[in-house]
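Work Package 4 report. The design task specified in the project plan requires that, given a folded chain encoded as structure tokens, an amino acid be chosen for each position. We show below one input record used in the internal validation round.
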């Protein structure tokens, strides 16, 4: 392919003009940038240099780069869209390179292997249905040459963002010897570092919502889709490569990480967090899942509805934690926990902690509700009408989510759960629920406060005020770390 000839045949303003309304200004043209939420014409097309640049989001390049970015395709695909065609080159007759020509290389027929797979059935109907949609199959023990590595394994189809079959991942049956997974070799067309499992099914939902969920494994991704979180992809391991991050950035502006509930998963998620933020994506890392669990195992234990509610509460953003905490106080006003050797009502502890932390609810009515729950009035009929209506609205909206969290805690608690101190009864499920929701609330509010103080520090010029803001920021950041550690221990 003659790249320069292709560029010459495709005048950049004409190509960009297919996607953007341009206004010509001499040798340049301007328009709204299609790569960010542009309200002013910040995209500039330079006809003399045959290039484009946006001075707001930094997008820049030539006509091929523009097509790559707006069509979310590879360099070769962009060239083909611009009228280029791949050339099949052969060495001159009599010339020997020592390697067989690419056309002669033996690349197995993926569709041939696909036809041999048997359907994969699970005890959970919703998972079985989704596994069939993802074309998950069981490989027989008798396979053609080139596919021996998959025999007897659970096989996941690896389709690229366009839906083309590029390979397979074979998972060994439970209890068998490692390696746990064997993938199609890179020589046969699959590269893990440039691939996200499920993207071909998830990309439209990701684009609509602007948010993507990332899981570690194939089965976790399928479980999320079965629970209607269709904007989910998997990294096919614990590492996220820069190329995968770039690929995701073409579809999402915000990412929620859902690693496995173990130390390795959390460590990998923190690395992903840094990489994705470097790429300009907003990242949310929820509190860890229960130790030893993952989205797939939780889906199987909780069922679709409770799993959906649980994931919903895991992905809480700052003020939603407040609604859940207040709802828990409404639902379990009489719940108690042991404090300094005495049974103490959880609602009272919540109110005391919020006062000590100087983080009262954002909504004043919620603070009134907490005070009412802590008081002696046993039913909402003794409360003012406005409080009654607020309490009813909270229970209607969030009671199911709070109970879902309680069910997960019950699932985790073993029958022989030991007390934290001698001669002190073990915490009840409700006590652990309050502890969990309180820590979630503190984590979200402290994170919000830290971001606010950091913003103040950026714009504040007066040294004395800057020093005070910096002190507050250090205290809040330290407290946020402590609360994060408490979440990990409590869970």
């Amino acid at each position: 392919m003659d790249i320069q000839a292709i560029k010459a045949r495709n005048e950049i303003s004409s190509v960009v003009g297919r996607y953007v309304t341009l206004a010509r200004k001499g040798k340049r043209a301007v328009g709204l940038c299609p790569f960010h939420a542009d309200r002013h014409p910040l995209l500039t097309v330079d006809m003399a240099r045959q290039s484009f640049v946006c001075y707001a989001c930094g997008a820049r390049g030539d006509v091929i780069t523009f097509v790559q970015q707006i069509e979310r395709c590879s360099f070769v695909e962009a060239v083909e869209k611009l009228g280029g065609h791949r050339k099949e080159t052969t060495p001159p007759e009599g010339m020997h390179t020592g390697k067989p020509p690419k056309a002669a290389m033996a690349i197995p027929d993926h569709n041939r292997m696909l036809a041999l797979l048997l359907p994969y059935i699970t005890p959970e109907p919703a998972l079985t249905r989704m596994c069939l949609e993802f074309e998950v199959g069981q490989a027989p023990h008798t396979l053609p040459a080139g596919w021996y590595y998959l025999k007897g394994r659970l096989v996941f189809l690896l389709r690229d963002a366009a839906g083309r079959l590029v390979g397979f991942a074979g998972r060994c049956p439970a209890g068998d010897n490692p390696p746990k997974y064997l993938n199609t070799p890179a020589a046969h067309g699959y590269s893990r570092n440039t691939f996200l499992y499920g993207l071909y099914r998830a990309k439209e939902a990701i684009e609509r919502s602007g948010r993507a969920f990332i899981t570690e494994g194939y089965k976790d991704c399928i479980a999320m889709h079965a629970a209607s979180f269709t904007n989910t992809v998997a990294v096919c391991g614990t590492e996220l490569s820069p190329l995968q991050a770039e690929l995701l950035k073409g579809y999402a502006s915000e990412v929620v990480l859902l690693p496995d509930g173990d130390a390795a998963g959390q460590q990998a998620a923190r690395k992903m967090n840094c990489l994705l933020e470097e790429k300009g994506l907003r990242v949310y890392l929820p509190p860890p899942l229960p130790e030893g669990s993952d989205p797939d195992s939780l889906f199987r234990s909780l069922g679709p509805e409770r799993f959906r509610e649980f994931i919903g509460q895991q992905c809480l953003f700052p003020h939603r934690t407040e609604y859940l905490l207040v709802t828990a106080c409404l639902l379990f006003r009489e719940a108690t926990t042991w404090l300094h050797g005495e049974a103490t009502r959880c609602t009272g502890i919540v109110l005391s902690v919020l006062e000590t932390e100087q983080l009262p609810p954002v909504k004043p009515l919620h603070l009134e509700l907490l005070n009412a729950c802590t008081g002696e009035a046993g039913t909402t009929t003794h409360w003012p009408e406005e409080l009654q209506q607020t309490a009813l609205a909270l229970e209607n909206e969030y009671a199911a989510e709070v109970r879902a969290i309680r069910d997960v805690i019950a699932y985790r608690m073993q029958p022989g759960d030991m007390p934290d101190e001698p001669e002190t009864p073990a915490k009840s499920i409700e006590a652990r629920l309050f502890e969990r929701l309180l820590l979630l609330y503190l984590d979200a509010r402290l994170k919000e406060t830290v971001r606010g103080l950091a913003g103040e520090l950026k714009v504040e010029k007066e040294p004395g005020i800057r020093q005070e803001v910096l002190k507050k920021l250090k205290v809040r950041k330290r407290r946020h770390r402590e609360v994060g550690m408490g979440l990990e221990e409590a869970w």
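Residues 369 and 387 are 7 Å apart (CA to CA). Validation will be extended to a larger panel in the next phase.
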